[in-house]
Amino acid sequence: MWSRAAVVVGVMLLSGPSWAELTWSTWDSGPGHNYHQYAIYWQAGTWPEAYAFARAQDAYLVTVLSAEEEAWLMSAFPSEWTQNTWMGLTDSEGYRGEESHGFGWPDRRWRGWVWLEDGVPVPLTPGSYMNWDPGCQEPNNAENGEDFGALNWWSTGKWNDWDVGHIDTPSSEWDKWPLRAILERNPVPEPSSLTLLAVAVAAGGVLKLRRRRK
């Protein structure tokens, strides 16, 4: 009899490029580009699992801070790859957010929500970029515990708040597929050869000056 682990691995292999691979794309051109790198994690599982995996890669779940960034992401990652995709937005008190639903519409779009960038909570403000689905007045906490932000480009092109993720027993339309996640990282650039040459020349000049003063 097939074990659950074997079935899960089979789904991962059929759902896209190898789930174990992370292919990083750099946003290095266009308005607002930040030279950050982004990758799809195919078998993200629950939001906490995706968050833990990202941190283990010295990365974090994507923070979508502008319309330009979201447009670039949508062009870099085809919609069929990003159905039900975790991002690094939460109002969970376990991740230093605050339950937003009690604030009412429209304040709950930002109050209590935090981006977790490199593990540091960055609260949303009224002026933050947001792309919640207005049709259902998202975030709406529909299943009484929807504390995690997800990109729902496949159907609405907007954001939803979802619960932790029903991986074992799918209970709704979005639960039918293992959730993906987009990871983001800000790599430290290696010094260029010209920079190293300039440092060497400057160091040589300092040594010569010290010798003359002796």
Structure description:
The termini are far apart. This protein has a single domain, classed as Mannose-Binding Protein A, Chain A (Roll). The protein has 4 helices and 9 strands. With 214 residues, the protein is of the alpha+beta class. Strand 7 (148-152) and strand 8 form a beta hairpin.
Supply database-style keywords:
nine-stranded mixed β-sheet, alpha+beta, single chain, 214 residues, 4 helices
Report the major sheet: 9 strands, mixed
CATH class: Alpha Beta
User: Helices and strands: which structural class?
Assistant: alpha+beta
Provide the gyration radius in Å.
Answer: 21 Å
**The CATH topology:** Mannose-Binding Protein A, Chain A
Topology diagram in text:
Elements: H1 4-14, E1 25-26, E2 37-41, H2 47-56, E3 60-61, H3 67-76, E4 85-90, E5 114-117, E6 120-123, E7 148-152, E8 158-162, E9 180-185, H4 193-213
Parallel strand pairs: 4-9
Antiparallel strand pairs: 1-2, 2-9, 3-9, 4-5, 4-7, 5-6, 7-8
Would you summarize the structure shown here?
The protein has helices spanning 4-14, 47-56, 67-76, 193-213, and strands at 25-26, 37-41, 60-61, 85-90, 114-117, 120-123, 148-152, 158-162, 180-185. The protein has 214 residues and is α+β, with helices and mostly antiparallel strands.
